[in-house]
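In the previous chapter we treated chains in isolation. Here, by contrast, the input contains two separate entities that must be folded as one system, with a combined length of 657 residues.
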Amino acid sequence: MPAPLIVTENLSKTYHIGGGDVRALVDLSIAIPNGEMIAIMGPSGSGKSTCMNLLGCLDSPSGGSYRLDGQDVAQLDSDALASIRNEKIGFVFQQFNLLARATALDNVELPLTYGRVPRRLRHDKAARALEAVGLGERMDHRPSQLSGGQMQRVAIARAIVNSPQVLMADEPTGALDSRTGAEIMALFQRLNGEGITVIVVTHDEHVAAHAKRILRFRDGRLVSDEPVAAPIRAADAVAAMAVPEAA
Amino acid sequence: MTYGDCIRASITALKANLLRSILTSLGIIIGISSVIAMVAIGAGAESRVKESIESLGSNIMIVLNGSRTTGGARGGTGSNITLTEEDAAALQRDVASVEVAAPSVQGRFQLVFGNTNWSTNIHGITEEYMTARNWQVDQGRGFNDTEYRSAGKVALIGATVAEKLFPGEDPIGKVIRINKVPVQVVGVLAAKGQTPFGQDQDDTSFIPITTAKKRVLGGRWVKSNLVSQITVKVRDAQDVAEAEREVTTLLRQRHRIPEGGQDDFNIRNISQFLAARAESTRVMGILLASVAAISLVVGGIGIMNIMLVSVTERTREIGLRMALGARRRDILTQFVVEAITLSLLGGLIGVALGIGGSHLIAKTGDWPVLIEPQAIMMAVGFSAAVGVFFGFYPARKASKLDPIDALRYE
């Protein structure tokens, strides 16, 4: 059996605020194999955002170890972390975070510009990623000309354009209506089915129920780590919602 | 991120806030355009002054005979004739910085043609004199070697003399009488106009030095090698002072003047004009440089201000770029390039306006303007440097942002 994609041991993060220490994450030891779809849950202040920032290489831990794809990343400097984020991790945010002045295609190309990909190749890759999320027709649209769901699809295309191993989504359906949210979750499940590891941070039980495994945090500690017996198939939900509209 | 990507991203960002970008560049635009225009006007004025000084014969000095004291009465300059043709030859041969040393004799005579006459200065010259004083022949020809050597009865007349003696007539080939000696006019000198002191340089006539001594001046000049003056042209205007010292030393040796003895000659030069010119150029240069420096600093502060605003406005974008793999250097480069683009565009627009403005001044004010390529290159270079200098701090601030905080920034 191959080594898990993500392995942490006693991973911790302590913030020093106003003279006192805040232990945002305490001794997290988990292993996430390739192809997993995970939901990270917990109330605000539970440590789930800190966990995502550390797993997403946006932040360095105060203690413990973190191996991503066999590489120890806990001690890397900010430039090395930037390269890891560029090559191995794709981010999807609640507020999409698209560049308002750039077209969908330019937005999707952005990670490739930092990966020193030649321009011609960038266009091809970005166009393929947009087609993969069903936006092949809207490459030249600006974010203001797109709906919320379409914007999130552009963001997902941007996240997968560099063929990362992990997709990290922070409340990806938080700004969307339930139907569009279901479509986005269906897209995540499809990408997961194609082999990419997906980590979704949410406080919504319904969203979490799409994952294969749920991690729950409270006060900086992992309090439960359970597989989901029968994850919701978002594609079915979308189909079910589509029927009355078609009728 | 390549520089090409950076430049494209900068232009997109600047176009998104077009009015703001233009207003920000305005400081640079005004500064650069006024500097370009002022440099052009200054250079034009300088070239006009230089032209009028050069008409006198640039970097020349004149060695005149000294004075003789007879029974307590001092004779004044030229009363003690000691300079010789050999002195001139020696100066040209032995002083390295001297290009030519031209001996000449002179006198004031009445010129007669038919029933008109005109009194003017007659110079007996050698070929070197034409070179030293930068005289050109406008019509006809100059003297040939034979005429110089064997006292040819020929004359070159100045433009004013031609006008007075031959109104509406072609003077070439006509015979005039100088001090009763008939000579043929072979050429008319190109007009030089007035000296800076209002003296008409064209009211003059030349004959070969041999002719002057033998036929016109007569008397003691006939068989002597003495001359009235030696006109010395120095190779480089900057060497005039040095050349004057060397000429003095050599002449004192040749005239066997003991240590402490008075010179038996006088040296006049126009180096004081050159010094005044250099001084006015220097003052002008300092003024221009300070105007340029002040306007560029003001423009640069405007750019820094707007870049700081821009970094704050785009904090989330910076966070996003970092999350997608931008390294600190990428962010730094992007914002520095944006600042340079802003200042460089301002500089280029300023250069264009400056050139346009100078042409307008040249046309409406009848003022000579001279646009120097170095001034344009300096202006463009400085505006780029302003972008780097004043863009660096905001860009550094952007690159130091924490990606997590930046992403969450509202």
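The two ends of chain A are 49 Å apart (CA to CA). The first strand of chain A starts at residue 6 and ends at 17. Compare these points with the single-chain example from earlier in the chapter.
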